[in-house]
Amino acid sequence: MTETETNAYDVVVLGAGPVGENVADRTRAAGLTTAVVESELVGGECSYWACMPSKALLRPVIARADARRVPGLRQAVQGPLDASAVLAHRDYYTSNWKDDGQVAWLDSIGADLHRGHGRLTGPRTVTVTGPDGGERVLTARHAVAVCTGSRAALPGLAGLDAVKPWTSREATSSPTVPGRLIVIGGGVVATEMATVWQALGSRVTLLVRGKGLLPRMEPFAGELIAEALTEAGADVRTGTSVESVTRENGTVVAVTGTGERIEADEILFATGRAPRTDDIGLESIGLDPGSWLPVDDSLRVTGHDWLYAVGDVNHRALLTHQGKYQARIAGAAIAARATGETLLADPWGAHAATADHTAVPQVVFTDPEAAAVGLSLAEAEEAGHWVKAVDVDLSTVSGAGLYADGYQGRARMVVDIEDEILRGVTFVGPGVGELIHSATVAVAGQVPISRLWHAVPSYPTISEVWLRLLEAYRDA
């Protein structure tokens, strides 16, 4: 391609991760011509450097931990994990970082893929610079959807680039197990990657600036996970800042706020995310490069009736499943506006991402797992709801005892006393990730407590915790 070409579409999607793919799927299903622009691998962060590789790494870790709690099985699984087999399993689930399958899927729905770096160059206009340096101009009759996601945010420590620190990408794609690993941060990436590499043989030191792990969940979630990591052999230190980092003869040296030197082979910074909007031409339409993009509930950017920001870039809920939910809403809204259909934008309508505000689920795949949906007690109180927290020790449920000897876990539901509905639910314990969708249905559906009494949990399952929670609320 040696000269500029121009192509017109109904919709142009910037970014071919799960979010961009789902926008394209919905707009193509509505009969709108759609172009998708991608500078890296089709499938995006989730497929190659986040959800899929991290969970492929974690699954053997969690399975072994569960097996060690089962009589008659624990003696058979006392040895170390086969690290090479675990890494190979990870590579399989990333398709060895090749996107042929994802490209074929885009082709199957009739979306056109444009490889290269896409930048807005005016209203409804995206210029794509291809791998060969040639340019192609794409114009959108109805909408441009920015689905470029987020990247790891690194702190402003002097000389950090020279250290070559790990971010989430290196942590999920490393071909080898480091002998010693420092993890900076206390959120999901930090706790999951500390769990993985500790189990694969690294000596992990987890340094957390705040008071505990998983600060956006109920406090007991982080407490139980910190205890488990410590028991597994990790060195977990809260209230610890890192003032400098250097690499000396291949060894990383982190100096804490107290002056202590901690040495490791690698260091992972899991200290937050930043939007991938710094080089997509936002300045050409009066927006600030590198900024999060505020949107309404149909995911349309404030002040631009043709521009949508879907997924991480709008900073509403930085989770793949929530981004895909937004993409389904945005795609439907784009189609409705394009065809002149009535927009159903009231809360819980077909064109409103209402769940972003009140029913966002999340699972942290550590050992034990932590899963939550909706508001924590503190968040509900801060929002002005009149609420009561009801807690149950999960070990009192028969299904939990059958699941694992010495089962440790906790459940909480946050009840709106005035409306008698659930504002939030949190589970912590082995296997609870598969419980959270029942809670999500209850929170998103605003199911009354009186009706939940008629949702009978099967015996003996861990789901019987629902009955214990309802009994605790009744008896409180």
Automatic annotation (TrEMBL):
Binding site for NAD(+): 185-192, 272
Cited InterPro entries: Class-I_Pyr_Nuc-Dis_Oxidored, FAD/NAD-bd_sf, FAD/NAD-binding_dom, FAD/NAD-linked_Rdtase_dimer_sf, Pyr_nuc-diS_OxRdtase, Pyr_nucl-diS_OxRdtase_dimer
Occurrences of domain FAD/NAD(P)-binding (ranges): 9-321
Residues where FAD binds: 55, 118, 148-150, 312
Any one GO MF annotation of this record: dihydrolipoyl dehydrogenase (NADH) activity
GO annotation, biological process: 2-oxoglutarate metabolic process
Pfam families assigned: Pyr_redox_2, Pyr_redox_dim
Family: Belongs to the class-I pyridine nucleotide-disulfide oxidoreductase family.
Name used for this protein in its record: Pyridine nucleotide-disulfide oxidoreductase
Species name: Streptomyces qaidamensis
